[in-house]
């Protein structure tokens, strides 16, 4: 029987098409605004990717923070909160005290974020039954990329390819994974590592690609995979392969490469008898008690 997570992963190309066709005119950050993007867990990593993309596109200074670590006293024109559930405590607390224009992207229109943010973009078609985020994370990034003026036609085609191609046996058998990214894809490398930890309890790490030589390559070796999301620095493949490790760089759009990682996470979970829909020790949203009881 297909799990919720498998079905949600498979639906991503269609979700991206729908998001690209429904970019809101004025709810998202506008060119020239100084923006803080916040989230928790997966949403924090998507925030990091978007922050790099927005600055690269020339739309303005953009910082990304875990919602619990956003600095106070720093001036922004807008806070953009990414929250699938619309109920995460740290995000809601930040919106209450933001002191500037706020926008939220969420999957659930029946949650507190709807009244706490000034503007809300609802991607309910990308909501998920699984605890593990897959399609909502990538769909909100597809929306944000389209808002920056990107054409996602090739990325969508790459995602379809990532879904259609069989997974190599070494991906389900590997002992360890290190995910690498450059620029905006570093946020996706962090998300790839998290997805593998959540779904199948894998030993994963993630680094900016140029930092990998500065220590982390010491764990490369037989049965271990170094997986590049995006273009790899010259010579890195050869250095990893010299250790006996496997170096992967699929050449797909990094967001589509993340889809392939999601598939591996589910395959490994099922092979171990784990339920990828309900990872150990996790819930859909972290809802903390009131501050006086924490």
UniProtKB/TrEMBL annotation:
Keyword annotations of the record: Repeat
Gene3D superfamilies referenced in this protein's UniProt entry, alphabetically: Glucose-6-phosphate isomerase like protein, domain 1
Stored InterPro entries: GlmS/AgaS_SIS, GlmS/FrlB_SIS, SIS_dom, SIS_dom_sf
SIS domain sequence ranges: 24-162
Top-rank taxon, per record: Bacteria
Presence of keyword 4Fe-4S: no
SUPFAM superfamilies with a match to the protein in the record: SIS domain
This protein's name: SIS domain-containing protein
UniProt lineage: Bacteria, Bacillati, Actinomycetota, Actinomycetes, Streptosporangiales
């Amino acid at each position: 029987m297909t799990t919720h997570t498998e079905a949600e992963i498979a639906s991503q190309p269609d979700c991206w098409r729908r998001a690209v066709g429904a970019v809101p005119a004025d709810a998202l950050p506008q060119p020239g605004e100084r923006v803080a993007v916040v989230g928790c867990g997966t949403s924090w990593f998507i925030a990091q990717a978007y922050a790099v993309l927005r600055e690269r596109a020339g739309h303005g200074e953009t910082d990304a923070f875990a919602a619990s670590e956003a600095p106070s006293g720093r001036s922004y024109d807008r806070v953009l909160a990414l929250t699938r559930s619309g109920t995460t405590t740290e995000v809601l607390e930040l919106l209450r005290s933001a002191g500037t224009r706020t926008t939220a992207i969420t999957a659930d229109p029946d949650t507190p974020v709807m009244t706490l943010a000034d503007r809300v973009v609802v991607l309910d078609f990308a909501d998920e039954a699984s605890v593990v985020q897959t399609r909502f994370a990538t769909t909100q990034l597809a929306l944000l990329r389209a808002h920056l003026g990107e054409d996602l036609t090739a990325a969508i085609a790459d995602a379809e390819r990532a879904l259609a191609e069989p997974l190599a046996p070494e991906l389900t058998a590997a002992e360890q994974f290190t995910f690498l990214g450059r620029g905006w894809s570093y946020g996706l490398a962090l998300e790839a590592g998290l997805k593998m930890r959540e779904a199948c309890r894998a030993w994963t790490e993630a680094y900016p690609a140029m930092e990998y030589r500065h220590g982390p390559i010491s764990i490369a070796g037989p049965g271990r995979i170094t997986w590049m999301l995006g273009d790899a620095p010259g010579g890195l493949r050869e250095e990893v392969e010299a250790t006996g490790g496997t170096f992967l760089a699929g050449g797909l759009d990094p967001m589509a490469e993340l889809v392939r990682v999601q598939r591996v996470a589910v395959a490994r979970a099922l092979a171990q008898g784990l339920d990828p829909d309900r990872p150990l020790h996790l819930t859909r949203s972290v809802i903390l008690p009131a501050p006086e009881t924490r």
